[in-house]
Predict the structure.
Amino acid sequence: MAFEENNFYVAKKYGLAKSDFTVECNVLAGANVLKVLSLSIDGCVQSLETLNGILNFSGIVDTKIVFLTDDGQINTICYACPFSSKFESEEITTRATAFVDLKVMDYNIDSISGDSIKLSVMLQQSGFVVANKEIKTIRNDDDNVCCKEDEISIIRYIGSASDNIEVESEINFRDKIKKLILTESKTLVKNVEAGVNFVTISGDVVSRVLYLNENDKFENGYVYDSFKQEVELEGVTRESLVEGNAKVKQDAVSTEIVEDEKGCRIVVKVPIALQVRAFQDEKLSVIKDLYSIKNEINVTTESFDMSKICPMEHVEGKIEGNLVLDDDKPRVDKILFNGGNNVCVTNSYIKDGEIYVEGIAKTTVVYLNDEDSSLYSAQIDVPFVISDKTDFKEGGIIVVDAIVCDVDVAVKKGRELFYDAKVKACVCYCYDESSGIITEAVNGENYPEKDYAMEVVFASSGEELWDIAKKSKVKGEQIQAQNPELVFPLQEDSSLILFYQKVN
């Protein structure tokens, strides 16, 4: 009798532990800084290295700082501050694909001295690794062993692929543009589809450009664009399950003013890093039960987990909030502009058939006070919760990307600022599904020789042929051949006759 390995692989996602760390940034502004007016900060992962037990990654903290010089000019400095960090977990292997989710949780201006600005930026790291996990099972080629097979559904990880694209957008203006102040670009995945050996990923790109016109008035404009890219990935079929992410390479965003006889236009070039992952839902025949007609078999059954990949979902909502200035802050006589528009997702979960996304929307308002004709700034933090119906099960791994757009800030009664914006979130989700399987079978003692030629077996109503044959330690075909009048499952209690060939 021989039992051989018949192992297979299933996809398994492992969540990486969430933690915070701080990056110190020393920015040289190129001019003496009197006051920082607004900050736009984003964290970008640039490289990953998976080792056994360790995931090392590096990236940049991209800062766009709008500041007032000591001679009254408004300037902008863009600076990329490098950093490195790591995750440690026994689930991290060299064969795994890693995804790191990086969020800017908070920041602080530590000091301003001459042309030097020192910042502390708190980043939160989380994410997951995904790989194929080997599941142990057996096959049999012994005619004396009866096997009951069953078809199970498994999810296998095909792999991942990356690509880089650039989305070029234009905003047309009638007025002349004197100076560009700030460009903020965000992207959000809207759809991911499987093809034959490729994955199509598409999404939205939102850019906001702040500028000073020829009349020294601050203006801003939004440009809404989209992207669609086929990313090659061997082994993908139209039935594959796919997911993806997109991230703006903030340090490489470029903005250019183009003038002609019709006026002028702003050209924004937004480079985007794409990653797609693919999984296959397959049917597999495995041995669910077995017995021998000659000897005992000791069977080991174990359960295994695999990750069930859900289709991506989107949640949208409106954010509104107020900020009342402290008494030591000058009143707002005129809002000039806002910058540092961002959203930080602080929590996300599934509950009672709904998906919830919680976070904080942030912006900095730059305003004028008439009494001293000076510029001031105030940071607005607005907590929010958005939700939508979902079929997702609770307790899985959830990754949320979110952006804000159409940000507007108005002043009420000089000391109260009213914030209004739209928030959009893209959700990748998976949960674990468990199944049991025979992992090992070992031969035991031989059955004693039968010293009789006939046996009567009493069976109960509802019993299946397999159960009766296993209990009697004979093949099912023998029961059917010797009791042709019986129909399984049995409709009533029955007596079965079994005949054996007695050898002298």
